[in-house]
Amino acid sequence: MNRNLLLIILHHLALLVGIAVYGFNIWIAIPIFFLSMMWAKLVGSDIMHFYFSHGEYKDSIKSYFYTFLTICTGLGSPISFSANHRQHHKYSDTEKDPHSPAHIGWFRVYFLMFAPQKISPRLIADFARSKFQKKAHKYWFHMHIVTVAILLLIDPRLLCFMLSPFIIYQFHVISATSVLAHTGGESKNVKLLWLLCWWGWNHADHHNYSK
After folding, report:
1. Within a 10 A sphere around the Cβ of 181, how many other Cβ atoms?
2. How many CB atoms lie within 10 A of CB 113?
């Protein structure tokens, strides 16, 4: 099991344990749900997707802060996420696509068991120039665990009802989009995804624009 999937499973368990211990309150759950949606939009789409994967990385205080937010998602470092995403765009729906449902199946794509790829260093040359990003890539898992431990020490509810729901929602948004928007061996717009992420249902338009 890769470390990304391990963290995703642990955060699902943290949410379930939180509900079992502290109970379920619909009036608390509703704002948490909408906050999770906004996290997925701001961190998953705006920062990880557009700022890192589709931008040219440069060291700055803002980039360092965004790196911490990316590490909080449990989905890897900015380098690993951007490398996979740039490879995906360059070789979309081919055998060189790390997460093509047509080639490795929807189950592996949804649960982050991507196909191993030899990714050209040129795809992440902007990140490779940053000592900070290389350190973040090496220690991202440890940094995530430390963040979880700090939240547990302050108040377990911060983990169970804030960080974990944010991570869970973002995971399902990314996985559902990766599967549904590429089922059939090509990128497509999926109006059904509007219910989950209004910003990402027009996936085919995004691929065409990126070209």
Report:
1. 22
2. 15
Per residue in 45-71, is it b (16+ CB within 10 Å) or e — as a string? bebbbebbbeeebeeeeebeebbebbb
Widest Cα–Cα separation across the chain: 50
CA–CA distance, 203 with 22 (Å, rounded to integer): 39
Q: Of the candidates 10, 52, 56, which has an alpha carbon nearest to the alpha carbon of residue 164?
A: 10
Domains of the chain, residue spans: 3-210
Segment (H or E) for 138: helix 131-154
Model's pTM, two decimal places? 0.94
- Scanning the structure block, which residue is given the tokens 């906004």? 38
Tell me the per-residue pLDDT of 20-61, one tens digit each, with 9 for 90 and over.
999 999 999 999 999 999 999 999 999 999 999 999 999 999
Contact status, residue 77 vs residue 133, Cβ threshold 8 Å: yes
Q: pLDDT digit string (tens) for 91-136? A: 999 999 999 999 999 999 999 999 888 889 999 999 999 999 999 9
Sign of CA dihedral 118, 121, 127, 133: positive
